[in-house]
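Q: Could you fold this chain for me?
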Amino acid sequence: MTAFFDNGSGVLRPLDSDLILHLLQDGNDSEVEGIDDDDELPLQRPCNPAVIDVPSPQFPIPPPAQPQRRNVVQNKAKARRRLWRQEAFSQKEHGYPQRVQPGVIREPLEYFSDYFNDDFFESTAFCTNNYFMRHNGRILNTNAIELKKLVGIHFIMGCIPYPRLFMYWREGLRLDIVTNVMARDRFKTLRSALHVVDSDTAPTGNTNTLWKVQPILDRVKKTCDRLERQPGYFSIDEQMIPFSGVCPRGLRQVIKTKPRPQGLKVFVATTHDGLMIDFEVYRGASTSMGDRSLGVGASIILHLSKSIPRGSCIYFDRYFSSIPLLEKLSTIGLHGTATLMMNRIPERKNIDFKPDRRMKRGESQQFVCDDVVVVKWMDNKSVLVASNCTSADDTTFVQRWNKNISAFTDVTAPKIIANYNRYMGGVDILDQSMEYYRTFMKTRKWTLKVILHFFDLALCNAWRLYKLECAAAAIPNSKVMDLLEFRMQVADGLTNTPNRRRRISESDENAVENVVQNNNTRFKRTNQPSQAKKYDGYDHLPCFESIDNPRACRMENCKSRSKIRCVKCDVYLCLKRGQNCFAAYHTK
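A: Sure. Below is the predicted structure, expressed as structure tokens.
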């Protein structure tokens, strides 16, 4: 009987029809596939002769050993191959509606209270008192009202910075809106003891290195989750909390290209005009970003995109971008556009971009693969951008400086470049707003730095929401508060928080004396109180109401009509030079 010598098992096996078909595998595979010419073939075990006549064996035939090279070839065949073609791309339409339902325009302090309300300050006062008692053995005896004044002073210091902290209380340089609220030593003590958790050690089994500031992070994130969302343009980028001291391992990062190179890194998702909707503080390898099969950068985009409505367009930079990420965004109903590095393009050998030296300024080139397009555009240097929604089929003009003629000229730019430059800067706008009046002071406590950063962040986000609601209500820009005025209004409302609860039946004679004016003295205009203080209902302050029909004066035997209302008594009274019913009513 004909036999076959098996190299794998080292035995002679009967060569029948089934074994022959198994060895040939119908001719579909080859044992030498994928072997280069330079590879040395393995030496065959000598056998002389290889085919002889032997009797049929009486034992079962073991299965033949499968070569490992064949499995590698089959896995390669199953992998997806991308074919890039230089052709037109089917673009997606972005007809996002504008905000048409105007909200109620509230006071600045009310916008800030959405993030940090009275419950937060009560719990913070409790934790601060306990921390001070544990470490000093004395009673701090602070409360929520005093901590509100502490935060308000920090906001004022961000608007009016001094080189040294003690200069705010120094004779000749003292700032009354700070020194009249709190003494210097009390301010330092409260700031040093400020805590938002009632513990000095992490809970058992805790792996979160941010546990000391987690309550303030949760409050800001929950408030951002309540913001109204609708499909539109969003951007995701990094933000730095400046700090160069000692902090837990994995928190402090160094990015040399940032204006603030050292500190804690925060990944932020914002609208294209700077309203933050979600964030995640980077904690190193322990950061919970979900699935990392596409890489760390892609996991950050997928994690923050959960807060973005489906159908929106996300813009991000090349730190996060990749072709598989854009394909993944298409499957979950999101559009994405990002700058790209050439080494992150699969099968990039099929893409034949022109060299930079052969491209003129304003020239572009694109390659398409299924639902993704890669565009190269030549400016002063080449720019590589990828997208699953916009391409270079449509072009526009951008202004660029021409040094040859020393003037600006129109340069052709693809639509994908114009949209990226227009909608990518949401996080940068938020950073710019914070840098204007950042609460900056030296400290070795990273927790205090994070707490102050998120106070500023919440204030900037509250002002951004206020501006959006004013724009939706068609309020003229001349009547919209800028960031400085908005911040000072919040600071004035916090620093003037009453130390006692309001009693309706109480009359304040000091307020009446300020209203009564002596006709023999020259009139001197006083500073206007903030909106929060004007309407808190603690003082007898006149308020002019914008009503069509004046109301009857509440003063006895007065037949006049008036539009002036007392914010505390809620009555209408006359306030004239010869007939001051407002002062007479409160002195009776």
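A (continued): The first helix runs from residue 17 to 24.
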